[in-house]
């Protein structure tokens, strides 16, 4: 979501006549986009502010993103040298803030709401890849998991009209984009205020109807994230089974494998209900890749609870997983609980879980050796000029030797080797 925000901000500033630079030392204005999901991310902001402040030419400095929204005015005191602060839904007025600072105004702040006519599009030049585009379909979150700051930094759920999403998909197809990611904190609770754009499209939930409607545009590949277990309706898997262009990848954060901890996190799902979702995913004929997020060391998590998480990870055979050490976030309900698992113990649990997920990842990747995956050639590998890198439909990173003329194409790659977090193979027929 943050990458997507940065792309849109870059697009709107260029449209207003600003020029982007890749060289930080050349910049007259520096804008820091921030994350507050864990304490470490928040600390990074203050380090970066300190670095910019040391510059003699004193560029204009602004802060956007979740830390801006949460800290607001406090940022001016805490991070001396900050000229303006723009909240998560105020990014459409960034140009105004810059002009006001340019005219001499001090400490400009805008934490206001999004404009009704906010432009969600990203110009092709500002996309992180020319062939892949993010499309936010819902912003904010109403779930209030007890450890999570997102409902406070991103506000309440608001869905974009399906007609607008489909219009964006069609425009991106014309621009040569092959893959879109429908994004949101919880895409499964997509609930637009009208059915405009979904007329005549079947589905058990507005999100599965949207998936089918987007699939019908004929765009080559559609991925979506993040899913929320309680709202992950089996009809989503039915839609994937029906439409080849809905990619065979599901990111379904479980957070814990202990019902006691899940209750404490107020996730609204149990280990058993999660397993039922996974069983449906595994039943698909599409060979769906399953990835997850897990927090270790939530307040009160015992060794027994943690072993339940290990057992669940073994059961689910995750193809990949992001593991986080619990980080108390001020303002969240869990912040009131004692952070009673030591950092060392969190690290030990992190490593034990990582070993299990690495193993299930290796086992699932080894099954792919000798098979052919469809890979979007996204860029030249950082390690070698003769190797291209991209993602398969199942969202695995695949590297393969090939020339740059294939960039942007979907290539059939026969997998020959499995590495940590990536596969290696050879393009067929070239
Ligand atoms: N501490 C640790 N991890 C967290 N996450 C969210 N909040 C916290 C926190 N306070 C993790 C969750 C979420 C991912 C994006 O970040 O696993 O799915
Ligand atoms: Fe945070 Fe995700 Fe829970 Fe929303 S659903 S509160 S974003 S962890």
Give a written overview of the molecule.
Helices cover 33% and strands 21% of the residues. Helix 12 packs parallel to helix 13. The longest helix is centred in the last third of the chain and has 24 residues, at 343-366. A five-stranded mixed β-barrel has the order 13-14-15-17-16. It starts with a helix and ends with a strand. It has 430 residues and is α/β, with parallel strands linked by helices. It contains 13 helices and 17 strands. It has three domains: 2-110, 3-Layer(aba) Sandwich (Rossmann fold), CATH 3.40.50; 124-366, tm_1862 like domain (pyruvate-formate lyase- activating enzyme), CATH 3.80.30; 372-427, OB fold (Dihydrolipoamide Acetyltransferase, E2P) (Beta Barrel), CATH 2.40.50. The chain binds 5'-deoxyadenosine and iron/sulfur cluster.
Spatial strand sequence of the major β-sheet: 13-14-15-17-16
**Helicity, in percent?**
25-40%
CATH homologous superfamily placement of the largest domain: tm_1862 like domain
Oligomer: single chain
| Tally of alpha and pi helices | 13
Q: What's the main sheet like?
A: 5 strands, mixed, barrel
Fold-level CATH name of the largest domain: pyruvate-formate lyase- activating enzyme
How many domains, as an integer? 3
Q: Strand tally, please?
A: 17
Structural class: alpha/beta
Mean pLDDT: 95
- How far apart the termini lie comes to 36 Å
Q: What's the CATH class of the largest domain, please? A: Alpha Beta
- The share of residues in extended strands comes to 15-25%
Task: Name the overall outline.
Answer: globular
* Bound ligands: 5'-deoxyadenosine, iron/sulfur cluster
* Uncertain residue segments: none
Radius of gyration from CA coordinates: 22 Å
SSE order, one letter for each helix or strand = HEHEHHEHEEEHEHEHEHEHHEHEHEEEEE
CATH architecture of the largest domain: Alpha-Beta Horseshoe
């Amino acid at each position: 979501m943050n990458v997507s925000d940065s792309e849109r901000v870059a697009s709107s500033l260029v449209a207003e006549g600003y020029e982007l630079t890749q060289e930080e030392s050349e910049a007259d204005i520096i804008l820091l986009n921030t994350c507050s999901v864990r304490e470490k991310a928040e600390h990074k902001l203050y380090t970066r502010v300190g670095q910019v402040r040391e510059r003699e030419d004193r560029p204009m400095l602004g802060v956007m993103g979740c830390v801006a929204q949460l800290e607001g005015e406090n940022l001016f005191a805490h991070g001396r040298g900050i000229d303006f602060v723009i909240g998560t839904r105020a990014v459409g007025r960034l140009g105004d803030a810059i002009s006001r600072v340019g005219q001499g105004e001090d400490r400009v702040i805008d934490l206001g709401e999004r404009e009704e006519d906010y432009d969600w599009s990203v110009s092709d030049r500002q996309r992180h890849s020319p062939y892949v585009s993010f499309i936010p379909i819902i912003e904010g979150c109403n779930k209030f998991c007890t450890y999570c700051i997102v409902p406070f930094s991103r506000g309440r759920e608001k869905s974009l009209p399906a007609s607008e999403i489909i219009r964006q998909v069609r425009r991106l197809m014309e621009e040569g984009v092959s893959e879109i990611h429908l994004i949101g904190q919880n895409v499964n609770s997509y609930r637009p205020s009208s059915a405009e754009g979904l007329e005549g499209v079947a589905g058990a939930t507005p999100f599965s109807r949207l998936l089918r409607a987007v699939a019908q545009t004929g765009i080559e590949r559609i991925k979506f994230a993040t899913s929320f277990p309680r709202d992950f309706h089996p009809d989503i898997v039915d839609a994937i089974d029906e439409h080849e262009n809905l990619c065979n990848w599901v990111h379904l954060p479980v957070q814990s494998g202990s019902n006691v901890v899940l209750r404490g996190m107020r996730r609204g799902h149990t280990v058993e209900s999660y397993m039922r979702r996974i069983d449906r995913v595994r039943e698909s004929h599409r060979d769906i890749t399953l990835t997850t997020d897990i927090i270790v060391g939530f307040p009160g998590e015992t060794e027994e609870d943690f072993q339940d998480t290990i057992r669940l990870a073994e059961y689910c055979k995750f193809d990949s997983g992001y593991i986080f050490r619990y980080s108390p976030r001020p303002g969240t309900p869990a912040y009131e609980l004692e952070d009673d698992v030591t950092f060392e113990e969190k690290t030990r649990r992190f490593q034990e879980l990582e070993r299990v997920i690495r193993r299930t990842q290796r086992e699932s990747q080894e099954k792919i050796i000798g098979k052919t995956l469809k890979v979007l050639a996204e860029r030249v590998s950082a390690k070698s000029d003769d190797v291209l890198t991209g993602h398969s439909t199942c969202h695995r990173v695949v590297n393969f030797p090939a020339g740059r003329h294939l960039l942007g194409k979907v290539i059939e790659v026969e997998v020959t080797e499995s590495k940590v977090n990536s596969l290696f193979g050879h393009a067929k027929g070239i």
